[in-house]
Amino acid sequence: MNVQIVEVGPRDGLQNEKELLPAQVKIQLIDKLVAAGLKRVEATSFVNPRWIPQLADAEEVLQGINRPEDVRFSALVPNVRGMERARASGLTEIALFMSASETHNVKNINKSMEETFPVLREVAREALALGMRVRGYVSTVFGCPYEGAVPIDNSRRVTDELLEMGAFEISLGDTIGVATPKQVREVLAAMLRDVPTERLAGHFHDTRGTGMANVAAALDMGLRTFDSSIGGLGGCPYAPGAAGNISTEDLVYLLQGIGYETGVDLNRLVEAGAYIQEQLGRELSSKVLKAELASKRAG
């Protein structure tokens, strides 16, 4: 049984770091992730650099990385201008994002949900016309920092809209890390009434320590694609000090331990985690990374 991993550390992880890393460090990180066997990597973002200065070097990074033919690289884009920059950088896949809660959408991209749909439709139309693949993110599916519980119908509507726009896959995000396995099963049961499992991915954060349990619940419901971040990089501006995305090392360890094939070399993945941890100068949250590095020191 195979599970696809979408590595989002270079984008979703690093965009939350206070420190601005040199482009060469990001290039080396991505190359190490690819060398570990990851086949899908979200490398950067083409959001306005004023909003996310950590990723202002998107073109330089994409120009510098190795690009094996069997690896799919993507970038997050907010509008047609971002999509055009991604295309000019040689990407063939982009990701669109939108919240399932009105307040979070306004805070995050300064637009209401109704104002966001036409923008995304235009981007998707232009991208598909150029032969690009479009992935969709739905944020705050399992809870909003402003509104609390988010109605499942909100997530279903955004998902349906993105699929109608031509997105090949929708990543359902636990943006602030509040989901529990019971909730994951309930949300997926509702979503899967209309959407096949192969069109959905899980995007969990480990803010409250339930990230891997939520992956297990999603696996039980049939999902076979998960986003994760090397070292557990990331976080959420609405949950200060919280752990970030689920760690790629932890995810691979779990999946391999219960019999799923990932195509990822865990030893080389740990090397990538150790590299970015050293560059950031602080310990990352990945439990497998901590355990493996401690074992090596002891040995």
UniProtKB/TrEMBL annotation:
Keywords per UniProt: Lyase, Metal-binding
GO molecular function: lyase activity
Gene3D superfamilies, per database record: Aldolase class I (3.20.20.70)
Protein origin, superkingdom: Bacteria
Chain ranges of the Pyruvate carboxyltransferase domain: 3-270
Pfam families, A to Z: HMGL-like (PF00682)
Keyword presence, Metal-binding: yes
Matches recorded under InterPro entries: Aldolase_TIM (IPR013785), HMGL (IPR043594), PYR_CT (IPR000891)
Entry annotated with the keyword Metal-binding: yes
Family annotation (PROSITE patterns): PYR_CT
Homology family: Belongs to the HMG-CoA lyase family.
PANTHER family noted in UniProt: HYDROXYMETHYLGLUTARYL-COA LYASE (PTHR42738)
Protein name per Swiss-Prot or TrEMBL: Hydroxymethylglutaryl-CoA lyase
Species in which this protein is naturally found: Brevibacillus brevis (Bacillus brevis)
